[in-house]
Specification:
single chain; 269 residues; alpha/beta; Rossmann fold; 8-stranded mixed sheet; disordered N terminus; binds S-adenosylmethionine; tRNA_methyltr_TrmB_bact; EC 2.1.1.33
């Protein structure tokens, strides 16, 4: 498995994946974005008090198994404390291109990607502690030196990074926030994309994947209308599933539930 530096349609080798861009159905209605009760609950109401931003995640408290608990100690060197300033400097080879993954879950696919691409550096950001522990366990066991992880809100981390310092930003199977009143928590939004665009290098990629059709349509509607981004597969199209993106846990769950999978690759212009 390698990571291409050219668009993945030129790298396709696995015939089970579509070779052509995928045409999506009609675009959904945009959310009303005016749910005052929810805004107050989220802390977003403009009421003169401190303004808390809307989070894209909910922290869950789940116990760690024995190897995960031990991994947090044994592989502590792979875990970076916030705040950080230039993520590139965390690595033995700061000159290598930086991939940032937001919400890596249990981290298996991130570890496989880092293992397959020693010529790149990988920073994974997650708030789910058992996932962080599992990820460093697998990265540590594999002896990876090009992967670091953080327990933090990725949006806060991004704010601190130098502009143009990220080569690839990946967001795989983000929480779809299915209820209309929660659409404001979706990561892909006109509110959050300016930060992503600011931190991506020119020519860098934002790569998102989802198994939730409404979110796929939503993502395309947002991303195709960002002047700073170009759809690598052409306006209105999803990307063929890249064979260098390992299956994630949530992707597998989506398959089991009979869902489709949509990848989107956008280049910062
Ligand atoms: C539905 S899970 C998908 C996990 C994994 N990518 C997969 O496909 O199996 C989404 C993950 O994103 C994380 N997440 C959501 N927003 C985040 C943020 N702003 N910063 C860090 N992690 C975030 C959540 O904690 C959750 O583990």
């Amino acid at each position: 498995m390698t990571q291409p530096s050219t668009p993945p349609n030129q790298q396709q080798s696995d015939q089970q994946y579509p070779q052509e861009p995928i045409q999506l159905a009609e675009q959904p209605d945009r959310p009303d974005g005016n749910d005052q009760a929810q805004s107050a609950k989220d802390g977003t109401a403009e009421n003169g008090r401190a303004h808390r931003s809307v989070l894209t995640f909910m922290r869950r408290s789940s116990p760690l198994n024995t190897s995960q608990a031990k991994a947090l100690e044994d592989y502590q060197h792979l875990i970076v404390e916030a705040p950080i300033h230039d993520a590139r400097q965390l690595f033995e080879h700061p000159e290598h291109p930086l991939t940032v993954e937001i919400g890596f879950g249990m981290g298996r696919s991130l570890v496989l990607m880092a293992q397959a691409a020693p010529e790149r550096n990988f920073l994974g950001i997650e708030v789910h502690v058992p996932g962080i522990a599992q990820c460093v366990y697998e990265a540590g066991m594999a002896g990876l030196t090009n992967l670091r992880v953080m327990d933090a809100d990725a949006l806060e981390v991004l704010k601190g990074l130098p502009d143009g310092s990220i080569d690839r930003l990946q967001l795989y199977f983000p929480d779809p926030w299915q209820k209309k009143k929660h659409f404001k928590r979706r990561f892909v939004s006109h509110e959050r994309m300016p930060l992503v665009e600011q931190k991506l290098a020119t020519g860098g990629w934002f790569h998102a994947a989802t198994d939730w059709e409404h979110y796929a349509e939503w993502m395309l509607d947002v991303l195709d209308n960002r002047p700073a981004l170009k759809n690598v597969y052409g306006k209105g199209n999803a990307a063929p599933r890249p064979d260098w993106r390992p299956e994630t846990k949530f992707e597998r769950r989506g398959h089991e539930a009979g869902h489709g999978v949509w990848d989107f690759i956008f280049e910062k212009i």
